[in-house]
Amino acid sequence: MVAGEASGDLLASHLILALKKRLPDALFYGIGGPKMQAAGFQALFPAEKLAVRGYAEVLGHYREIIGIRRKLLSGMLQEPPHAFIGIDAPDFNLHLEKRLKAHGIPAIHYVSPSIWAWRGGRIRSIAQSVSHMLALFPFEEEIYRRNGIPVTFVGHPMADVIPLEMNRPALREKLGIPQDQLVFALLPGSRQSELQFMAETFIETAKRLNQRFPQARFLVPLATRETRDAFELALYRLSALDLPITRLFGHAQDAMGVADGVLVASGTATLEAALLKKPMVIAYRMSPWSWQILRHMQYQPWIGLPNILSGRFIVPEFLQDDATPDNLAQALGNLVEDQETCHRIAGIFSHLHERLRQNSAERAADAIVGFLNRSEAWTSAPLAV
């Protein structure tokens, strides 16, 4: 099993627990994070080794990443597991899955690559690499079936965890935030490489929002010590230590749950904000070289999951040179002042939440066990994944 970042670590930990109920003697090992290890996973390499985004950024770690993949592949070919489960991280996992499948080892991929948004030609490589796909979104199921790839729609685990209705007053009381205070949540990314390009933009945006709403408070959840240090260094560089910003170690859901508006880097956090029914503005910046490559691979006019899943623009998006502090502050400020629009957005997100709420870990575990029961790799010996 391989998971390459914090979201994959959480996803895999729930899957491991669900599989253990069905396969109590199963062994789980590979690349994973602390949540997977707490569920009984043996990490041969830590998940953060793979947590790099952007072409230019990946090149800086290319040799180390390839070395890890080579060692992992060699070990599995010498002692084949009953199945391999790749959790997201498609650039790493699909190559691994292709080699394993060619050697008769079933390769299950959990979380479809975003072929509907970027690099749709990957579907051919996926067909060669994947024995069974576990898809988080309903429209993905049809794409894979149309291309002859076995697939199961399992729903999104975040939709199971987040309640359909959040008790914001209780959450504000828990965090000691007055009920009538205006609160913005800022989520500049979960990776250090993302903060390199977005921390200063988000801080400058907070400065402008603070000028427009001097009573406002800002909450910034940061996933790791490295991202926290990077954000605090950016505050120091911009002489912004006096801004009313509270840094949180994790607790992204709490920060967004109490917020009136959210500024969020494109990624899984945009879906989390949608499931919390929050008005948001989506931003993303990367290295100029990475951007020149990716913008020519984009198939849809949206990059944010709330807009993609809705099939239309629901929340504003600002990418690369358009992601300026002036643009972001104006868009988010206007949004929180328009209560009619905020109410309409919340209704759309409530419908989305219900569609994705499928008890995903249990459905995924059922699909995996069903697949293994049909697979020639299944034996009475202890299962290794």
Outline the structure in words.
With 385 residues, the protein is an alpha/beta fold. The chain folds into two domains: 2-155 and 358-374, Rossmann fold; 161-356, Glycogen Phosphorylase B (Rossmann fold, 3-Layer(aba) Sandwich), CATH 3.40.50.2000. The chain has 18 helices and 13 strands. The strands form three sheets. The chain has a six-stranded parallel β-sheet, with helices on both faces. Strand 2 (29-32), helix 2 and strand 3 (42-46) form a beta-alpha-beta unit. Helix 4 (62-78) packs parallel to helix 5 (90-102), helix 5 (90-102) packs across helix 6 (122-129) and helix 10 (192-212) crosses helix 11. The longest helix is centred in the middle third of the chain and has 21 residues, at 192-212. The chain starts with a strand and ends in an 11-residue tail after the last helix. The model is unreliable at 53-60 (pLDDT under 50).
Question: Any descriptors?
Answer:
Rossmann fold; alpha/beta; 385 residues; 2 domains
What is this structure, in a nutshell?
With 385 residues, the chain is an alpha/beta fold. It is 51% helix and 14% strand.
